[in-house]
Amino acid sequence: MAEKQETILITGASGFLATHVVDYFLRGGYHVRGTVRSAAVAEKVKETFPQYAAQLDLAIIGDVAQPGAFDAVVKDVDGVIHTAAPFQVFGVKDNERDLLKPAIEGTLNILNAVHALAPKVKRVVLTSSFAAMADHSKGRWPGHVYSEQDWNPTPYEAAAAKDAHAAIAYSTAKSLAERAAWDFVKQNNPTFTISTIMPPMIYGPNINATADLAKLNTSSMDIYRLMSPQSKSSDPVPENMFWSFVDVRDVAQAHLSAYQTAEAANQRFFICKGNFTYQQFVNVLRASFPEIRDRVPVGNPDADRIPDDVYTVDTSKSQKVLGLSYRSLEETVCDAARSLLKLEAGKA
Predict the structure, then answer these.
(1) Domain tally for the chain?
(2) Which of 4, 46, 174, 232 is labelled catalytic?
């Protein structure tokens, strides 16, 4: 619990992950000032946390990349959790405009605002990504062990190119935004420290009132496509494009722990349970939810092991410094499915 009711600014407070981050800080006794993009979304966020009405305020910021976007909301806060950043790889028309600039400029905007206007802040926690670590040119990178030592090497120019795939631009945006944060600290020597949180694919339950089956976040849709009324048991099981995962609640706990733990200052943290296959996902869904088994692909239930030529991960730092104990794949998938079925029932 918070020693006193500190006020924590949490940007992008309506997001899939950010809603859990807000939840963990509220339950920890903090007052949360969240940012959202519209008044309508603010009302939905309030609906998510009716029991914490006295601890939660919402501010509207339409564009986090606009200079001075955070100037008003950082005043009088004790800490900052910056989760707001574009997460899209579909429908992107301009990599630089839609992905690179918003991620980098949004990060620098929050740091500049804190540096200039929020003297009480001692810790800023930034949501980065495994994308900031991954070297896509290596593919599955047999034998490699990913850790906090890794950086995505793709340069800005390559990601901004008109023929660059949006997925590469997204990954590079995360990497360059994080690098910009570390450069800011080095160049400005601020009175606050930063910690960066780097999760891979984030699965788990939706708890936000903004959740909508028609507009699910990317990772929730990744599971729902395996169990939606439009799928069937004879469908093929998707092939993995990404191999590592983590539960959304563990990522939220990582943000809280990084804020509270002195040893986390100026550190990167790879937040990851381990590797997975979609065959493992459908096996869990079919075993745990017999009522929807006819719409969950069967695939080859015995072929669920992770290939030997896929990289592995080292998350010992997050366990040692942040005290994390990761949820199992089964718990993550089942709780995600339950929340999706609840949403489905509500829309029926």
Answers:
(1) 1
(2) 174
Whether residue 291 is contained in a domain is answered as no
Query: Which residues contact residue 165 at a Cβ distance below 8 angstroms, ignoring those fewer than 6 apart?
Result: 89
**201-203/244-247 β-pairing:** parallel
In a domain, 131, yes or no: yes
Written as six digits, the tokens of 259 are: 């804020």
174 is catalytic: yes
Integer Cα distance of 220 and 225 in angstroms: 9
Task: Give the DSSP letter of residue 99.
Answer: I
Range of the domain at 159: 7-209+245-275+310-326
**Burial readout 235-251 (b: 16 or more C-beta within 10 A, e: otherwise):** bebbebeebbbbbbbbb
Q: Which residues pair with 244 in a beta bridge?
A: 275
111, 105 contact by CB (below 8 A): no
Using alpha carbons only, what angle is made at residue 111 by residues 109 and 113, rounded to the nearest 5 degrees? 65
pTM: 0.95
The token duo for 146 is: 């990913």
Per-residue pLDDT 10s for the chain (348 aa) are 555 689 999 999 999 999 999 999 999 999 999 999 999 999 999 999 999 999 999 999 988 878 898 999 999 999 999 997 655 544 567 888 888 988 899 899 999 999 999 999 999 999 999 999 999 899 999 999 999 999 999 999 999 998 888 888 889 999 999 999 999 999 999 999 999 999 999 999 999 888 888 889 889 999 999 999 999 999 999 999 999 999 999 999 999 999 999 999 999 999 999 999 999 999 999 999 999 999 999 999 999 999 999 999 999 999 999 999 999 999 999 999 999 999 999 864
Determine, yes or no, domain membership for 346: no
In a domain, 226, yes or no: no
The CATH number given to whatever domain includes residue 189 is 3.40.50.720
